[in-house]
Amino acid sequence: HQHNRHTQVKMAEWDLTSRMGQYLDRHLVFPLLEFLSVKGIYDEHELLKGKLDLLSNTNMVDFAMDVWKSLYPDQDVPDSLVQKRQEVVGQLKFLQAECEPIVKIFEDPEVARQIQSTRDGRQLFDYLARNHGFESKMVDTLYDYAKFQYECGNYSGAAEYLYFHRVLVPSDDKNAMNSLWGKLASEILMQNWDPAMEDLNRLKDVIDGSTFTNQLQVLQQRTWLIHWSLFVFFNHPKGRDMIIDLFLYQPSYLNAIQTMCPHILRYLTTAVICNKRRRTVLKDLVKVIQQESYTYQDPITEFLECLYVNFDFDGAQKKLRECETVLVNDFFLVACLDEFIENARLFIFETFCRIHQCISISMLAEKLNMTPDEAERWIVNLIRNARLDAKIDSKLGHVVMGTQAVSPYQQVIEKTKGLAFRSQMLLHNLDKRKGKDDQDSVPHWGAQDVGF
Fold this sequence. Notes:
452 residues
């Protein structure tokens, strides 16, 4: 029991939900809370209270009533909730009636064709005004209806109307930006990963090309995008590559991670460890982890430090056990567990092999948390798949390494890459500390009481 308690305390200490929640729309926090509830890291009663608190700022009244009943089974649902339900239904009917003529217009096949073929919102608007009596206030009605649908938890309705809204409004419209965030959230909550990836890229282009005079606001928007993107990157087939390109190799995003949310290094590190094709990025990542180790560490980042900075194999093995606990209890990473463990073992093994010419299998098994038989089978497979230049001496229980020299040409290429990366890092570290002090006082729409 004592051991379980200790593990539970550790899991709570490594859990990032409360840090992440600050940068997510409240609807996106629900899946995370559901996951925590299943994992049993926290007191269920406290989690339900948290859920009810989140729900109080949405229009998902039926959901709130269900949570209330779970919390207080012997009490009646409060009048305030019953009252709110009537108001929400009334408001929904009103907005529905307001939007009906607009929806009718969009259902016209000719209009659908125009939307597909016209890239210019102004042109489309003129066409609709000319042929269907469309007015500018209808655009705002459409947005209000979409937002209300979203607050009620009808994400497919919200996504559909926000799509129409986006094709109609100019980029400087007062709701243009919010509309993009709302569309991305809706697609994430419906688990439509292809449209979500498109929306993510669209939002990124708008933020990167933005004319915000306030640099801090841009930093804030990027921080939000980084957090929302995790849903997409860990579910979309191309996500594991794209997260590395965005978080590690786009200086403005790496800068945002270092300044505002170094805890995101957990996700970047996991993606790199799980990505067999991107071995070369390890060096760059380890540099970043070292730079940030005074602001953020967890077993996943420490695993790489043990291995590639300290060459501490016992430390790496201990961290690998902890990594397992972290991954199993992380909403975004739980699906990467097997791949992560397999690749992490490979990293330990390869690094060990670089240092030693002849290795005892039983010692290696211990370093990899395996039995000697498992370890031998594992190594045989590596050799068979040509991922390892070595021979096994079963009698002595040894692995004897072949020699793999790195050509001078390859070394020069590696060094040049490293230089370019280091100069970028230097630039961004100069202004990194500047934004740190006043990051909390930013007025930002996401911090308000509304959803998107």
